[in-house]
Amino acid sequence: MTWPTHALFGISSLWVLALLPPESIGFDFGTLAAIATFGSLLPDLDASESKIKHLKFPGSSFKPFLVPAEIVHRTDQHRGVLHSLSGLGMMALMTIPFWQWGGWAPLAALLLGYGSHLLADAATKSGILLLYPRKRRFYLLPQGWRISTGSLAEEALMAPLAVSAMFLLLTRIAA
């Protein structure tokens, strides 16, 4: 999947949090949507070219993820460990120290975004190595239904994902 699709899947994954009472979350959904979007881009640090690799600090040319992306790409294949339950687990472990600082909701948004990336890529023809380092590919959809990255089928997903994300944000920001 391409980065816009992953971003919309990431935001839409916040429907899980929308099931909870707003006062229990303690964070606005606009901020959580930004965090989920970031989380949805993280697994592609292993790609030779990815949106996260080229993100810049506002008003500068500094790309904070360029070096980590280069290191990860050189040490692992695309859709390797970062596209697995091991990668999701490593991300969860790395974010635990931030729990006390930011609370549980931002971490949940980050991990939901990350997990949405895995589900989206599992719906493609390439699938993912869900149980890395085991080399067996996992597919979310039957063979005839799998989506090619950048195809018309992926573009067709954009409209319902955009509606889902907008509806979520409009209803939760107003709440």
Can you describe what's shown?
This protein is an all-alpha fold. The protein has one domain (3-174). Helices cover 56% and strands 0% of the residues. It has helices at 3-12, 15-18, 22-25, 29-41, 66-75, 85-95, 99-102, 104-122, 152-174. The radius of gyration is 16 Å and the shape is globular. The mean pLDDT is 92.
H/E series: HHHHHHHHH
Distance between the termini: 32 Å
State which percent range the strand residues make up.
under 5%
**Roughly what is the average pLDDT, rounded to an integer?**
92
Secondary structure: number of strands: 0
Work out the helix count: 9
Taking pLDDT < 50 over at least 5 consecutive residues as the criterion, the unreliable ranges are none
The percentage helix is: 55-70%
Cα gyration radius (Å): 16 Å
Structural class of the helices, strands and pairings? mainly alpha
Domain count: 1
Would you summarize the structure shown here?
This protein has helices spanning 3-12, 15-18, 22-25, 29-41, 66-75, 85-95, 99-102, 104-122, 152-174.
Give the topology, please.
Blueprint: H1 3-12, H2 15-18, H3 22-25, H4 29-41, H5 66-75, H6 85-95, H7 99-102, H8 104-122, H9 152-174
Helix pairs in contact: 1-4, 1-8, 1-9, 4-8, 6-8
